[in-house]
Amino acid sequence: MAEPTRKSDQAFRTIGELANELGVPQHILRYWETRFPQLKPLQRAGNRRYYRTADVALAHRIHRLLNADGYTIRGVQQLLAGGAADDAPTPSPATPTASAAAAGPAFPAQELRALRETLRAALDG
C-alpha cells in the first residue's frame, strides 16, 4: 500500500489539514481568526481558507501558548500585539512580561496544584 504524499513545509494548508496537524477542531481555527488579527489565511471562492507558512507557524505558536504554556486568549493577544518576534523565546507564565502581566496570571494547572499544597502545608504547620 502506498504511503500518502507529504506536503512540502512551504505548501499552503487547508483548514482541515492545519486542524489535524494541531489536533483541534476547525471551528477553533476560525475562532482564532476572530481573536488574533495577525492570523489571516487566504480565502478563495466559497470562503475556502488556505494557510500560508507564516500562518501555520503562528497557529502553532498560538496553540502552544494556550495549551502548553497556560496563557489565556487575552494574554496571547497581548503577547502578539506587543510585537514579540516568532523566533524570540516565549516568556514563561511564571515570569510574565509587563504586557502579559496585565492579562493576569496564566499558570499551568500543575503549578497551581503545587502552590496550593505549599500554602495548605504552611497554614497547617
Written overview of the protein:
With 125 residues, the protein is mainly alpha-helical. The chain has helices at residues 15-22, 26-35, 53-68, 73-81, 98-101, 109-124, and strands at residues 13-14, 42-44, 48-51. It has a 3-stranded antiparallel beta sheet with strand order 1-3-2. The longest helix is centred in the middle third of the chain and has 16 residues, at 53-68. The chain is elongated.
Describe the secondary-structure layout.
Blueprint: E1 13-14, H1 15-22, H2 26-35, E2 42-44, E3 48-51, H3 53-68, H4 73-81, H5 98-101, H6 109-124
Antiparallel strand pairs: 1-3, 2-3
In short, what is this structure?
One of its GO terms (molecular function) is DNA-binding transcription factor activity. The chain is mainly alpha-helical.
Keywords, separated by commas or semicolons:
125 residues, mainly alpha, Multidrug-efflux Transporter Regulator, Chain: A, Domain 2, three-stranded antiparallel beta sheet, 3 strands, 50% helix, elongated, DNA-binding transcriptional regulator, MerR family, DNA binding, DNA-bd_dom_put_sf, MerR-type_HTH_dom
